[in-house]
Design a protein that fits this description.
Blueprint lengths: L6 H6 L12 E8 L4 E6 L10 E8 L7 E4 L7 E4 L7 E10 L2 E2 L6 E4 L9 E8 L4 E6 L9 E9 L7 E8 L3 E6 L7 E10 L2 E2 L6 E4 L9 E8 L4 E6 L8 E13 L9 E5 L5 E4 L6 E11 L4 E9 L9 E8 L4 E6 L8
Length: about 350
């Protein structure tokens, strides 16, 4: 930038230069703020002629290795205020001196990190998935994080309700794209959701609010109802719960009624058992042997909806007891006469 050179520098260009100057000395950081840093240094020990000025080079970020020429011409002064800089950002700086013969080797390198400021708002807040009781969220970190380590606050409330926002913190995240899932929500409910970034200097502005509704449940009867074991006085039923039944299934009612029997034993009252909604099997006891039972399994949902499944199961016949020990009632030299007693339990075979 020749236009910024002094008249003395332009006139001095007419004189011969022996060689390039030696490097500037003792480059140091005088003061650092969030968006600027003040530098100072000493002139080269051997300027080898009139110094035209200094060029400043920098790298930005801890993992950046490419030096960029930030200021092509500072002038002959030996201090400079760099601005505007990014808050909470790591910089490396070096300078070179220049005379009419060319540029010097580099000065020492100084490093510093600008002070942090509260971050800007997060970007691109969207729903990534929706279930009955959960909402998946995704967003991008602030365009201006203004610091190294960010945490995030997800705040939400039921839409239209005059209630305090619920806040969940997500800490230690440095990725550019983030995801989080809100759980334990109400089904068929609309929520107002915001996300706020935070660093050690404080919280930024919240994102724009989005409204997301959880799914409305569709009641479905239990599935795969089957008999897995039985005896002459009991049997076990097993089933699987339908997907999305959690938090909407209130209870399961099992009712077994006698439909026919191969014995002359007196009938018993129908068996009715109320179960917890997470139950997947039940043992029905005190039944008649050799009898058919019709079992209805009622799934009772929170909306008052009832879904039913049905199965018929036979109990096994009773186990026959062996005859009692025979009684000897007579014998001869070569024979024995016995009396046999039948079991008292001669019900159905």
């Amino acid at each position: 930038m020749a236009s910024s050179r002094s008249v003395e520098a332009i006139e001095y260009d007419l004189y011969p230069y022996v060689s390039e100057p030696s490097p500037p000395r003792n480059l140091r950081v005088v003061e650092v703020k969030a968006r600027e840093a003040q530098l100072s240094w000493l002139a080269p020990e051997s300027p080898n002629g009139f110094l035209i000025g200094y060029d400043l080079l920098k790298t930005v970020g801890e993992h950046e290795n490419e030096w960029r020429e930030t200021v092509e011409y500072i002038g002959p002064r030996m201090k400079y205020t760099m601005k505007p800089l990014r808050p909470g950002t790591y910089y490396r700086i070096r300078i070179v001196a220049e005379n009419g013969a060319g540029k010097s080797n580099s000065s020492n390198i100084v490093e510093f990190e600008t002070h942090e400021e509260p971050p800007g708002p997060v970007r691109d807040l969207n729903k990534s998935s929706v279930g009955l009781t959960e909402i998946g969220l995704s967003w991008s970190k602030p365009k201006q994080p203004n610091g190294r380590s960010l945490s995030y606050y997800v705040t939400y409330k039921e839409d239209g309700q005059q209630q305090e926002m619920v806040t969940e913190e997500i800490s230690g995240r440095s990725k550019s794209k983030l995801q989080y899932t809100l759980t334990g929500l109400k089904f068929d409910t609309t929520y107002e959701i915001k996300v706020t970034a935070k660093n050690k200097e404080g919280s930024g502005q919240p994102s724009n609010a989005i409204e997301v509704a959880t799914l409305k449940p569709v009641p479905i009867a239990v599935q795969h109802l089957t008999n897995v074991s039985r005896s002459s006085s009991s049997f076990k039923l097993r089933w699987s719960l339908p997907e999305q039944s959690e938090n909407i299934l209130e209870s399961i009612l099992v009712r077994c009624s006698l439909t026919q029997s191969l014995t002359n034993l007196p009938n018993k009252e129908p068996k009715q058992i109320r179960l917890d909604p997470s139950t997947v099997e039940v043992l029905v006891r005190n039944l008649l042997p050799a009898a058919e039972y019709s079992c209805v399994l009622r799934s009772e949902f929170v909306q008052g909806v009832v879904k039913q499944s049905q199965i018929s199961v036979w109990t096994k016949p009773p186990d026959l007891k062996p005859p009692t020990s025979p009684r000897v009632i007579g014998f001869t030299d070569n024979s024995v006469t016995l009396r046999l007693y039948e079991s008292d339990d001669r019900t159905v075979g």
